Amino acid sequence: MNKITPAKRINIVSIKMVKEGSILYDVRQISTPSDAAGLGRKFLEDSDREQVIVCCLDTKNQPYLPERGQYRLFKQFSYSSKRNL
To answer: The whole model's pTM is what?
Structure first.
């Protein structure tokens, strides 16, 4: 006699990019590390935990896509990629 296994329900998840807001940054072009630090400071001024910023620049060194992430997740990814080397 074969036992019938009940079907399993699988959650469907999607991630959507939503514009949260904007910041006014007075330096148009990032040419020094202190310019990048200034942008990071403005971007993270309301943060309550450690985070990392990845900021994409165009060909004129103008920031156009800053992305904020949790430092803990970045550290875990860095550790796991080193183990695979």
So the answer is: 0.53
